[in-house]
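INFO  loader      accepted 1 record
INFO  loader      residues=330
INFO  predictor   begin
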Amino acid sequence: MSGPGGRSIQQSQRDPVGPWASLLARCTFPPAGTAVTCAVSGGADSLALLVLATAAGCAVTAVHVDHGLRPGSAAEAGAVAEAAARYGATFRAETVDIAPGPAGAGPALPPALGAARALPPALGAARALPNLEARARAARYAVLPAGVLTGHTADDQAETVLLNLLRGAGLDGLAGMRAAHHPILALRRHETEAVCAAEGLTPFVDPTNADPAHRRNRARHELLPLLNDIAQRDVVPVLARQAALLRDEAETLDALAAGLDPTDAPSLAAAPPALARRALRRWLGQGQDHPPDAATVERVLGVARGHAARTDAGGGRTVARTANVLRLEH
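INFO  predictor   done
INFO  writer      dumping tokens
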């Protein structure tokens, strides 16, 4: 297998000035020889992840997950298997069923957008289910090992920050994705496409990536271009940099809040609100699929401050205060 200039991937691993050295310097892959699992859908980002992980000297297992949401998706696994073999990676294919969403959940699509698309019947039926992206993601991660590497880029990071902002997320949401399991998070989407082009790889283009029913697609195709136009600059690096700064601050607050006992009502009441909220979020979020929302945290903080004796803590739980101690009751 040859990269730019006729160098092989094996040569690139031994040669620090190999074809992908400049990109790898901005990646966060573990040391050479480390066994890693890469989620490889067959798109440009995940194929570039496969190329760069093997170039970094990792022992790669590529896993393709077929959600069965569009015609012909099963054939993509074969192409990913060929790419994995080409780079000396182990390959595994997984097929998942997407559970139906709750009836009536999720926002209705604006009529103009709904009328503008003609979807295949099977895909249209699946798309009509609320929170499809979240359910597909949950099904995908259910068959992937903990610590799986994904091909999210700086462009994905910018989209995530904006979407979290629109959802009303706090500091953690605005800090975006952590680099731990996203080793190419500092790269741009055009760079992953360039890797594929240089390697002669033809990425799959998921038609759902242009579907405005998904908020991320609207952020990608409408919101970011508008922000670029207003700012007269590429705002992706700006958003990615802000996320990194906020992530450092979030980690500092977490370290400070770790010394605060979330069941000690007087200590919570006397603590700076930012630390009290983080201590409560950590406590209330234990064993839950999602962290508590801001309103729940504020209600529990009100109990700690003596404004109420008990309150709803979400998930069928209650927080009560007795003798200056908070109790979480199920």
